[in-house]
């Protein structure tokens, strides 16, 4: 009886060590959320997951930057912070001179245009 348990334990452990990884694997979201992107922002807010249709280009009209993390941007006429949705994109990070968005696992960086550009 003990011999059978030892054999079964060895077989189980051997099966657990089998890997099924593929070389060169690329994640394709197929319209779903990328599971490798966090659901909670650094300041503890829950990221919004609702998908709204794209409303055109993302235009950064201004940035209110706070080095402690409570930064906001004026995007397409709306004030948005980390986790907010704008034009089908979600704000991932607000930096001094640019805003980083994500949509369907694709990261998009939009620079703040200087006057006259």
CA radius of gyration: 22 Å
Uncertain segments: 50-56
Overall structural class, as computed from helix and strand content, comes to: alpha+beta
Distance between the termini: 80 Å
Largest sheet: 4 strands, antiparallel
Approximate shape = elongated
The total beta strand count reads: 7
Quickly count the helices. 1
Helix amount, in percent? 10-25%
Record the SSE blueprint.
Layout: H1 2-16, E1 60-64, E2 72-75, E3 78-81, E4 85-86, E5 89-94, E6 98-103, E7 106-111
Antiparallel strand pairs: 1-2, 2-3, 4-5, 5-6, 6-7
Brief sketch in words of this structure:
By secondary structure, the protein is of the alpha+beta class.
Detailed description of the structure:
Helix content is 13%, strand content 28%. The N and C termini lie far apart (80 Å). The strands form two sheets. It has a four-stranded antiparallel sheet, with no helix packed on it. A three-stranded antiparallel sheet has the order 1-2-3, with no helix packed on it. The protein has 117 residues and is an alpha+beta fold.
